[in-house]
Amino acid sequence: MAEHITASARAYDGHVKYTWPLTLMHQDDDFMALKGEAGRPVWHGRHGLVHVEFGSIEFYWKDRWYTVGISHDEAGSVQLWYCNVCLPPVRFESRSLSFIDLELDVIVEPDLSIRVADEEEFMAAVSRYQIPEPVVERARLTIDHLASLVCARAWPFDSTRIDRLWPPGLEAV
């Protein structure tokens, strides 16, 4: 039976920004792969309840400064990769995961063009929460790292078909 997980993105001060349901596909000590159904509800702190049009496969690590969500259509074609720049560790707890979202996002289109989103929100968070300079610098280096993965067509940016984007060497639940 599939295990349902609630994901939470939190602001730097720890308050919940948004939550959404996912289904566990794989978990080990350092990594989780989850599936989001098309049409799933997302509770957003500013906008209330919204529904996500596309399905997704989402990857979370305990030791990385980013998450990767891959939105796809019903036919399995990637619509975009959405990468949250966040503080490690992503916390895996009983039927939940949460992370501190640093507001910066890297959006990758199917043609592998890259866009950094929410720079203004990041700078506002830096000021509001007095985020230390080493964290700011590491967040910016994380953007560069993600861009290098995309340019190298390294996993998980190596296919535009969702059925080809499963992590090498891992078995699904």
In short:
With 173 residues, the protein is α+β, with helices and mostly antiparallel strands. It has one domain: FomD barrel-like fold (Beta Barrel), CATH 2.40.380. The protein is 17% helix and 46% strand.
Task: Explain this structure.
- The protein is of the alpha+beta class and 173 residues long.
- It has one domain (4-161): FomD barrel-like fold (Beta Barrel), CATH 2.40.380.10.
- The protein has two helices and ten strands; from the N terminus they run E-E-E-E-E-E-E-E-E-E-H-H.
- A seven-stranded mixed β-barrel has the order 1-2-3-6-7-8-9.
- It is globular, with a radius of gyration of 15 Å.
Shape: globular
Mean pLDDT: 92
Give the total of domains: 1
Q: Tell me the CATH topology.
A: FomD barrel-like fold
Round the Cα radius of gyration to an integer and report it: 15 Å
Low-confidence stretches: none
The major sheet is characterized as: 7 strands, mixed, barrel
Topology, number of strands: 10
CATH architectural name: Beta Barrel
Quick one: CATH class?
Mainly Beta
Based on helices, strands and strand pairing, what is the structural class?
alpha+beta
End-to-end Cα distance:
9 Å
> What's the helix-strand series?
EEEEEEEEEEHH
- Considering DSSP H and I runs of 4 or more, what fraction of the residues is helical? 10-25%
> Strand order, biggest sheet?
1-2-3-6-7-8-9
